[in-house]
Amino acid sequence: MAHPSPITPLIERTQAATLPYGPPELGIALVEQFAEIELEYAALRKGCVLLDQPHRSVLVASGPDHRAFLNRMLTQELKDQPPLTLRRSFWLNRKGRIDADLRVILLPSGETLLEVDALRAEHARTTLDAFLIADDATITHDPARFHRLALHGPTAIDLLSLALDEPAQGETLRTLAPDRAVVVRLAGEEVIVFRDDWMGEVGLELITPAGVARAIYERLMSIGAAHDPHAHPLDRDASHPSHAIRMRPAGWFACNIARIEAGTPLFPIDFGPENLPHESGVLDDRVSFRKGCYLGQEVVARMQSLGHPKQRLIALRLVGDNACDEHANTRQPVGGAHVFARSDAGGNPVGTITSSTISPMLAGEVACFAMMRYANSDPGAELTIAADGAYVDAMVQPSLRFWSREPALKA
Q: Which of 45, 231, 274, 308 could form a cystine bridge with 225, CB 3.0-4.6 A?
């Protein structure tokens, strides 16, 4: 079900490079970058970045029985979820494989939003709907109803506070904790803002009515992008509030660097429909082992009782002199590159790189996620990766997170 981003005309004016996301018939395109990646990454760490997110979608669950129904279906405990909170959860199939990775947000109206990757939205709706038999509940997916924007960075709250129709609500934004949501007014409409620091900085995720998404994007740009030559520059002096915000629109490349540094794997890049929850690297964040039955629970419980899966997502850091070539250029493995036991380089692969980046916060070292055979996945395990025509030594890290700005992030 295709629905073009309302921000596309603005992006086309900048002549920013884009890349397709999913099948062409969906018409989803992500911006690679507006300007130099270094500038966009610096804005994320020092100011804030504005993101268009056409690759995200929103399902709406409603009806008297919908919360009980979702609690029976999803892996996270939802029956005690307070309004305006976020819980991440998996929707599994009967074999215990991950059909969708969801953010579950309960609204004061009683509706529940299921925020999901756009490539899995309609599949999630139809598969959930198939289990609605005697329940008085509905699951809807209307791409024309909502659009997704986001602000990430230390000054994100300052920028959004200036953009609100009712500035007094800015104090609510300033106290917004991770995994909490608030309803604000922007461009004359109610907008849901939830906090998710998935790039290692304050992250304000916006669920906007699609009809005002462009107006909101333009308002945020006009307030915060005074120093971006690609984003309608404004002639303001240093006394203007926007001068300290230092906002830029950003594309996928800069965000990908930051989310790997922050230890955030993504569905369907780092794990996907072929994986079990225990293989995802985010089991504890998505699955409750204290709730009642849900679809696929027997598989999850059996895996938990066995102690470990056959493979799991881990973080790797390149080590040793061979991490750079003879010209001091960093060797960076690409997604799909094979990982070997240190003693068997070029032999039988024991893992596969799913994401990698050259990390500014690690002084230019390479940081990777890899789906690894369990026997080779313990912290400190010594491995070798095929990268740029050579074999480079690597070591398994204690957690997926490479860097954090404490105390902004949860442990």
A: 231
Closest CA relative to residue 360, chosen from 108, 111, 5, 38: 38
Contact 202, 408 (CB under 8 A): yes
Residue from 172, 186, 226, 181 nearest 204 by CA: 181
SS3 breakdown of the chain: % helix, strand, coil, rounded to 5? Answer: 30, 30, 40
Q: Positive or negative, the Cα torsion across 42, 201, 409, 100? A: negative
Tell me the per-residue pLDDT of 250-288, one tens digit each, with 9 for 90 and over.
Answer: 999 999 999 999 999 999 999 999 999 999 999 999 999
The reported pTM is: 0.93
Backbone dihedral angles phi then psi of residue 230, each to the nearest 5 degrees: -95, 5
Question: How is residue 342 written in tokens?
Answer: 């240190």
CA angle 214, 266, 335 (to 5 degrees): 115
CB 115 within 8 A of CB 208: no
User: Which tokens in the block code for residue 407?
Assistant: 């105390």
Q: What is the DSSP letter of 329?
A: P
Contacts of 55 (CB under 8 A, 6+ apart): 21, 22, 28, 30, 117, 118, 119
Angle at 151 between CA 149 and CA 154, to 5 degrees: 175
| DSSP code per residue over 122-162 | HHHHHHHHTT-SS---EEEE-TTTEEEEEEESTTHHHHHHH
Q: Return the structure tokens found at 93.
A: 């199939």
pLDDT of residue 277: 98
Residues in the chain: 411
Q: Please enumerate in sequence order all residues whose Cβ is within 8 A of that of 265, keeping only pairs 6 or more positions apart, or say none.
A: 271, 280, 281, 282, 313, 354, 355, 369, 400
Measured CA to CA, the distance from residue 66 to residue 63 in angstroms comes to 5
Element (H, E) at 313: strand 311-318
Measured between alpha carbons, how far is residue 331 from residues 328, 355, 356, 365 in Å? Answer: 9, 14, 11, 9
Whole-angstrom distance, CA of residue 249 vs CA of residue 92: 35
Of 270, 271, 267, 222, the closest CA to residue 247 belongs to 222
Name the residue with tokens 């602000």: 151
